[in-house]
Every structure is written in C-alpha cells, then in structure tokens.
Design brief:
Distance between the termini: 30 Å
Number of strands: 8
Order of helices and strands: HEHHHHEEHEHHEEHHEEH
Shape: globular
Number of helices: 11
Length: about 300
C-alpha cells in the first residue's frame, strides 16, 4: 500500500504515467503485485485501490485476526482463498506475456532449493513464463512462509515468497539489465521503493541467545539486512547518484506484514513522495522508455 501510494503521488505531482519512464520493473512479494499491475497497464492509483478494497478480506482484523495470531505458532496464519480471489478479479486471466513492460518477479522453489525468477519474454531464451497467468505468479511471490501456504499452481512446483532471498530486488533488476539485456552499468539508473523499515530495540542478551531467544528477531533481521545490502551494493557499482531509494524508518510495532493500516501508510507515502519528487523529476522523467517488443507472443496454451 505504501509503495503504490508513493507511485500514485508521483504520477499526480509530475503529471505523467510513471511506468512510461522505466525499461524494466522488478518486484518481490507485494512489490510483485505492483510490478505485474504496472506491466499490465494499471495505474498506481488503481493498484492502491486494490489494496484498500482487498486488504481486510486477505488479512482479517478484529477477533478473527487474533485467533489467527494464536494459530500462527503451529499453522499458516491466513487462508490463500481471499488473496487468490482478489488477484483473479484484479488481473483476470491475463498472462505475463500481456505485459507492456519488461518484468522480473522473484520467488523461491522449495523442491529444488533454488531461486525461481518469472520473466517476460525480453530475451530469446525466455520461452515459457510469458504463458503463465499473472495472478498465479502473484500468488507464488506473495506466499510468505508461516503467513500463507506455498503455491503449487505452476507446474506443481512448491513456490514461496521471493522475499526469502530477494526481499529488496534491486540487485535482481541490476543483474537482469546488465547480464541479460546487456545494458552498460553507466546507462542504468534505479528507483527503489521499500515497504517502510521498523527500528526494533534489540537487547544485548541476544549476543549469547539460542533459538528461542532469536525466534522473534530472525525474520525482520534477515529482511532489513538483505534490503540494506542490496541498496549498498547497487550504489557501489553504479554510484550514489544512480540509485534513488524511497523508504523511511518507523517506530517498532507501528506496522506489520499483515496489518491493514491505510491511514498510517498513505500518510507516510504522501510525505516521503513529496521529498523525492524533485529527484525523480530530474533523474527519471526525462527518459522515455522505448516500446517493449517481446521475443515471443503471449498466445498459446496457459500453463
């Protein structure tokens, strides 16, 4: 919701269609939904509306939410049906191959213990993913372990949230641009939008702590560590001026992965986007992406 609201504000302030200024869009988990939506022609305001309308059904608040929190210790916290229903309503049966932008969506294949990237047909060897419905890819990249079950709807592969290895997909995008598309480093600029970063207090008792003491800290530590590392690596390779990051710190406990908090998120997006609008106007808007022509058409059997 934060990322979609940031993009909606940028479109409004700069009076443009933001996706027109980018050649490649990568997104993990909820960012994957946004990336797919942009590729399929949705405006950020429409994607924000999707989150506003669907959030309470996907992550139910109140008593149902408290009961799910108790079950979370032994069972996945949320049922996948409301998310699937919302995504199918949003994307319909449109395929990844119907995307008008180059898109890369990270997931992780539990069966093969390997990364799984879903890509539009922006290279001759990419012959399969463009036939897959967008909603299925969205289900795979958002299947956060312990929150939602793994997704088996694509060739029966056991796929989970790409955030387990690329919560911040900055390096995924940089690698795709330079390694697959052959773009020189000096021609790459990156706009990265986070999902806000909490600042938890960590007791020094963790220094000698075991599994039980570390259990409640592991997820946020891995997410924040990977995200910071990806941005720092990209800035080292491309230079500070070529990597723009939109993400701010919030007090610990204010937000959660599955907490529906539109007022806090949209308010924060309004403030953060206002600060960065001049930078985006200078570094990204002058570039108008050439029309994406895929190597393979979207027609064909749906997997």
């Amino acid at each position: 919701m934060f990322a979609a609201a940031v993009l909606a504000h940028l479109e409004q302030d700069l009076e443009t269609r933001i996706a027109d200024h980018f050649d490649l869009i990568t997104g993990t988990s909820t960012g994957g939904i946004i990336a797919l939506g942009l590729g399929l022609g949705m405006r950020p305001a429409e994607i924000l509306e999707f989150y506003l309308n669907s959030g309470p059904a996907i992550f139910p608040p109140g008593l149902r939410g408290h009961l799910r929190s108790l079950l979370h210790w032994v069972f996945r916290k949320h049922a996948p049906a409301p998310l699937e229903c919302a995504l199918r309503e949003c994307f319909g049966e449109r395929l990844l191959g119907h995307s008008s932008k180059r898109v890369v969506i990270p997931t992780f294949n539990m069966d093969g213990n390997d990364v799984r990237l879903f890509k539009t047909a922006h290279h001759e060897r990419l012959r399969r993913d463009h036939k897959i419905p967008a909603w299925k890819i969205a289900m795979a990249t958002t299947a956060a372990p312990t929150y939602l079950p793994g997704f088996l709807g694509i060739d029966r592969q056991w796929l989970v949230d790409g955030g387990v290895w690329a919560n911040n997909p900055t390096m995924v995008g940089l690698t795709e641009a330079t390694g697959v598309l052959g773009i020189p480093f000096e021609a790459v600029s990156i706009l990265n939008i986070g999902t806000l970063t909490s600042l938890p207090e960590r007791s020094r008792s963790l220094i000698a702590g075991g599994k039980l003491r570390w259990a409640s800290h592991t997820t946020d530590l891995l997410i924040s560590g990977q995200g910071t590392g990806a941005i720092n690596q990209a800035r080292l390779i491309l230079g500070e001026e070529h990597v723009t990051r939109i993400d701010s710190a919030v007090p610990d406990g204010l937000l959660a992965l599955d907490r529906y908090a539109p007022n806090e998120l949209i308010s924060r997006a309004s403030r953060d986007s206002q600060h960065v609008t001049p930078i985006v106007a200078k570094n990204f808007i002058p570039h108008v992406a050439a029309t994406f022509v895929p190597c393979h058409a979207a027609e064909g059997d749906v997997q």
